[in-house]
């Protein structure tokens, strides 16, 4: 029996893991509503169409990641080692807590050709991801912290992809270890 009342946030909490796992193209609005335990009409109350849902998912994931990522980076009471430990936990939550890896990369691959707005929103996510890593690099790497930050984000995203392909977390773990060594300049 479908739920009578739910919030938009509850719907998104149910939908995001499904989209991360199955992808946008392989998830119908009917299936998503059913997974949320609500009627399709109630689902459309929050999201007029799949495009509106995609925008909201991208926005939600972006805001969650950015808030937590920069809260760690800007916390002056933490040592660099403590910041890296907390960032690793954040990566676990965002990239490995459910199957499917990085929902931003997956959504980008599925939707960029469909709507240029998605591309712009996803670019913002990765720009901020790179900028945050760059901030961690700047104290020890004055030569070219931007290039190093881009390399680290590319490595992490590649690690996530290989983790999914081989069903082996070592690829992401190795990328994170390389990130730590570069940031700590060791």
Descriptive account of the structure:
This protein has about 190 residues and is mainly α. Helices cover about 75% and strands about 0% of the residues. The protein is built from 9 helices and no strands. The longest helix has 24 residues, at about 50-75. The radius of gyration is 18 Å and the shape is elongated. The termini are far apart.
What are the key terms here?
186 residues, mainly alpha, 0% strand, 9 helices
Radius of gyration: 18 Å
Main pleated-sheet profile: none
Please tell me the overall pLDDT.
Answer: 89
Order of helices and strands: HHHHHHHHH
Low-confidence stretches: none
Counting DSSP H or I runs of 4 or more residues, the number of helices is 9
Shape label: elongated
Specify the structural class: mainly alpha
Strand content: under 5%
Instruction: Give the strand tally.
Output: 0
Overall helicity: over 70%
Distance between the termini: 57 Å
Q: What does the secondary structure layout of this molecule look like, with pairings?
A:
Elements: H1 8-22, H2 29-36, H3 40-46, H4 50-73, H5 80-96, H6 103-111, H7 116-137, H8 145-166, H9 170-184
Helix pairs in contact: 1-2, 2-3, 4-5, 4-7, 6-7, 7-8, 8-9
Quick overview:
This protein has nine helices and no strands.
């Amino acid at each position: 029996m479908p739920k009578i009342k739910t919030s938009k946030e509850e719907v998104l909490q149910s939908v995001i893991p499904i989209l991360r796992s199955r992808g946008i193209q392989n998830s119908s609005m009917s299936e998503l509503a059913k997974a949320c335990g609500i009627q399709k009409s109630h689902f459309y109350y929050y999201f007029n169409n799949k495009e509106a849902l995609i925008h909201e998912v991208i926005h939600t994931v972006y805001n969650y990641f950015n808030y937590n990522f920069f809260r760690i980076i800007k916390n002056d009471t933490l040592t660099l080692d403590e910041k890296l430990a907390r960032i690793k936990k954040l990566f676990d939550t965002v990239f490995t807590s459910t199957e499917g890896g990085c929902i931003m990369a997956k959504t980008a691959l599925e939707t960029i050709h469909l709507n240029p707005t998605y591309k712009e929103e996803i670019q913002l996510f990765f720009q901020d991801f790179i900028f945050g890593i760059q901030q961690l690099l700047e104290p020890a790497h004055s030569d070219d912290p931007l290039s190093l930050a881009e390399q680290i984000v590319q490595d992490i995203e590649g690690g996530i992809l290989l983790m999914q392909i081989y069903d082996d977390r070592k690829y992401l773990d190795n990328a994170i270890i390389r990130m730590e060594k570069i940031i700590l300049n060791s």
